[in-house]
Amino acid sequence: MLCHRGIVTPHGWPFDPRCYDDVRGPLATAGYRVIVPYLRCFGPTVFRSPDIFRSGQQSALGKDVIDLLDALRIKKATLVGYDLGGRAACVAAALWPERVHALASATGYTILNLEKNAKEPGSIEVIRLSWYRWFLNKRLGEIELERDPEALARECWKAWSPKWQFTNAEFVATAKSFHNPDWIATTLNCYRTWYGNAPGDPGLQKYEDQLAKKPKISVPTMILHGDSDALYPTAASEGQESLFTGFYEHRILEGVGHCPPKEGPRPFVKGIEDLMTAANKV
After folding, report:
1. How many CA atoms lie less than 13 Å away from 154 in the CB half-sphere?
2. Averaged pLDDT for residues 189-215
3. Which residues constitute the domain of residue 90?
4. What is the CATH number of the domain that holds 233?
5. pTM of the predicted model over 0.85
6. CB atoms < 10 A from the CB of 264, how many?
């Protein structure tokens, strides 16, 4: 079983594994086995049965990471993620620390208390920045997502990464992953359970109960937060040291927005390599 040299990189929404194209090569050259999976409902992924709950909950994404390690017979791996992928990595590290060698999360500790979210919407600034979530909680958001999923996704890319001059070819290559037949249902479940507007998977409730307690993360952790992230300003990941009990470092990546592996691949790779060095000393 592979141990310590494996890196799993779950991506964000609305992105896909293409965001790691400039990162996986250098990490592989450095001797790591890099696994770049699709999140559930993206690209060619399929549910094995029509009866499986189309959940986009954080616990579903985190457990998917662990299930992937099981399927590949990997005892332990380093998890690297941003956006939903970062949340999946945080969940896996918090609930299954024995399976995680180290953690790199772009915007810090992002585990949610879904019950609290359903009662407390957050600050007005957070509501303004997260307009797309509220839109997707409305029937009109569902209609628009069904009508033109790429329009909303492209707007998110532009808004969240103001300094990233991505090409149309880059966007089109990724947008193919949004035409999965379960993408809309799983996306809507993700953002609607976030605010208590959709039922979650009963089979995952035990994990959500654990996550609601804000479990601390014990594995070595590196935060790689872009200073131009318009969805999560850098203040979002500051002052979180108490939520981590092992090695912890917080880095700001200059000129980088919400998709750091694509916008700042060199400092992103350097951060992961430094994390691995620190983790191997533990």
Report:
1. 14
2. 96
3. 3-281
4. 3.40.50.1820
5. yes
6. 25
